[in-house]
């Protein structure tokens, strides 16, 4: 638990940001949670009003405040639509840290974040065993989407989920440190947990595209989580340990850009590492700022740095009709929406078609999906309907976490639509 003096300082900092909200309600129109529940308490304005009286509420009903604050996807739709520029996500992230500092972290989360996540080697070994044994507990349900469900009573309920990959990315690919080739550029590759453990083909597609363009690659050994699962639960202790672990792996290496193929990792490194760096030493803060400034989504790197462009595919026979879902953390947090669309259309076999509400949240929201699955699935079904309406055989996106949610929704609906990462679609076209 944080001491009360420290908490008071954090609350004061929060109050300074809260005064910017003029209670106009523009955030209501775009909040996916409010669209399902119709409850003012679920929208950003309602949560900000609650936080305004945080000092009193902390002593009266801290768990009630925490529960209401956790009914949020951290999608950033409210921030993106706020005429006053209220930094809603920054406020919510800091408020969660304050409440967790006051209430303490639940034992299960403590065990996962501080016992597993911050020890990447141990975490990797454990999930390697999990990948070997998972067949005892799950059964495949959908060949096209590669989903499974629980054999008996499963804690994952009716979800159609992707299992752990039989071989994780870090087991397939050795650490790398190659020189720049024809492009003259070198990148550091931040893999992220979901790509490493569930979607290694995305990591392979990134390496394939980099090799094709003659880009040098630094891939460290023993890479770790970006820290977002811990931070979104208010655990700044585990978050800071993970930031320091990653800084030790990447700082001092000669690379031009740090790339990720996970929208959530990109937004976390670029926005949340600096936001939460206040308690770190000045030297560490400088390292955080330097890494954040160099971080880029892989499609942005391909298009803006390597000049990949749309290919005129007229006359091509094999036309795959494909649509795209904008991850909130890429479009709303970082403003990257054009580059993935260009990357997809750099594959001459693709015919691109926008879906309606392409940038509407898929409803995953990390632990939101675990704690409020009914709500998460209701939001996800709206996304599934828009994908089905597009008539496309493939939906691409730029975040492996969105891929988990979209896959679940399509699989439960029995749709014959493939889910791919934009870099996979691009890499398929490279000879
Ligand atoms: S957060 Fe922004 S959009 Fe929402 S009520 Fe406040 S000022 Fe209006
Ligand atoms: S971050 Fe998303 S879910 Fe949370 S209040 Fe804002 S719009 Fe609603």
Distance between the termini: 55 Å
The total of helices stands at: 23
Please tell me the overall pLDDT: 92
Contiguous uncertain segments of 5+ residues: none
**What is the CATH homology-level superfamily of the domain at 320-428?**
AF0625-like
**What share of the residues lie within helices?**
40-55%
Rg, please? 21 Å
**Quaternary organisation:** single chain
User: What's the level 1 CATH class of the domain at 320-428?
Assistant: Alpha Beta
Class derived from helix and strand content? alpha/beta
Present as ligands are:
iron/sulfur cluster
Number of strands: 11
CATH topology term of the domain at 320-428: Rossmann fold
DSSP strand content: 5-15%
State the shape: globular
Largest sheet: 5 strands, mixed
Which strand order does the major sheet show? 3-5-4-6-7
Based on the coordinates given, report the CATH architecture of the domain at 320-428: 3-Layer(aba) Sandwich
What's the gist of this structure?
With 431 residues, the protein is α/β, with parallel strands linked by helices. Helices cover 52% and strands 10% of the residues. The longest helix is centred in the last third of the chain and has 18 residues, at 373-390.
Verbal overview:
By secondary structure, this protein is α/β, with parallel strands linked by helices. Among the domains are: 4-104, Orthogonal Bundle (Fumarate Reductase Iron-sulfur Protein, Chain B, domain 2); 320-428, Rossmann fold. It is 52% helix and 10% strand. The chain is built from 23 helices and 11 strands. The protein has helices at residues 4-18, 32-37, 44-52, 54-60, 62-70, 77-80, 88-103, 107-117, 120-133, 169-172, 193-197, 200-212, 228-232, 236-250, 263-275, 282-294, 298-305, 328-334, 338-344, 367-371, 373-390, 400-413, 422-428, and strands at 138-142, 147-150, 176-177, 186-189, 216-219, 257-260, 295-297, 320-324, 350-352, 394-397, 418-421. The strands form 3 sheets. It has a 5-stranded mixed sheet, with helices on both faces. Strand 10, helix 22 (400-413) and strand 11 (418-421) form a beta-alpha-beta unit. Helix 1 (4-18) runs antiparallel to helix 7 and helix 19 (338-344) packs parallel to helix 23. The longest helix has 18 residues, at 373-390. It is globular. The termini are far apart. The mean pLDDT is 92. Bound molecules: iron/sulfur cluster (2 copies).
């Amino acid at each position: 638990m944080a001491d009360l003096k420290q908490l008071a300082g954090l609350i004061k900092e929060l109050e300074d940001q809260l005064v910017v909200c003029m209670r106009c309600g523009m955030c209501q129109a775009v909040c996916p949670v409010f669209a399902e529940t119709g409850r003012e308490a679920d929208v950003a304005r309602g949560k900000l009003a609650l936080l305004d009286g945080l000092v009193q509420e902390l002593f009266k009903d801290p768990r009630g405040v925490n529960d209401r604050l956790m009914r949020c996807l951290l999608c950033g739709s409210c921030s993106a639509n706020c005429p006053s520029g209220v930094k809603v996500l920054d406020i919510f992230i800091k408020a969660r840290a304050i409440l967790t500092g006051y209430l303490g972290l639940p034992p299960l989360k403590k065990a996962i974040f501080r016992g597993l996540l911050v020890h990447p080697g141990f975490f990797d070994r454990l999930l390697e065993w999990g990948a070997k044994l998972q067949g005892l507990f799950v059964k495949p349900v959908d060949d096209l989407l590669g989903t499974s469900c629980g054999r008996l009573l499963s804690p994952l309920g009716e979800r159609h989920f992707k299992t752990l990959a039989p071989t994780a990315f870090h087991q397939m690919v050795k650490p790398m440190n190659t020189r720049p080739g024809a492009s003259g550029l070198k990148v550091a590759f931040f893999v992220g947990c979901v790509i490493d453990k569930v979607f290694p083909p995305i990591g392979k597609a990134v390496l394939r595209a980099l090799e094709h363009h003659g880009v040098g690659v630094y891939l460290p050994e023993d890479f770790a989580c970006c820290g977002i699962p811990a931070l979104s639960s208010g655990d700044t202790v585990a978050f800071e340990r993970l930031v320091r672990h990653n800084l030790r792996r990447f700082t001092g290496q000669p690379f031009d850009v740090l790339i990720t193929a996970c929208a959530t990792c990109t937004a976390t490194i670029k926005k949340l590492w600096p936001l939460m760096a206040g308690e770190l030493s000045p030297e560490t803060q400088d390292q955080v700022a330097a890494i954040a400034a160099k971080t880029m989504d892989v499609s942005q790197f391909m298009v803006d740095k390597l000049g990949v462009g749309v290919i005129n595919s007229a006359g091509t026979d094999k036309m795959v009709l494909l649509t795209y879902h904008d991850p909130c953390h890429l479009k709303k947090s970082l403003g990257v929406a054009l580059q993935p669309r260009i990357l997809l259309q750099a594959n001459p076999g693709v015919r691109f078609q926008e879906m309606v509400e392409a940038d509407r949240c898929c409803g995953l929201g990390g632990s939101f999906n675990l704690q409020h699955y009914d709500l998460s699935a209701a939001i996800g079904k709206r996304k599934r309907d828009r994908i089905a309406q597009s008539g496309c055989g493939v939906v691409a996106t730029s975040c492996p976490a969105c891929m988990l949610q979209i896959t679940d929704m399509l699989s439960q609906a029995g749709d014959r639509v493939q889910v791919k990462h934009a870099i996979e679609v691009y890499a398929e076209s490279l000879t």
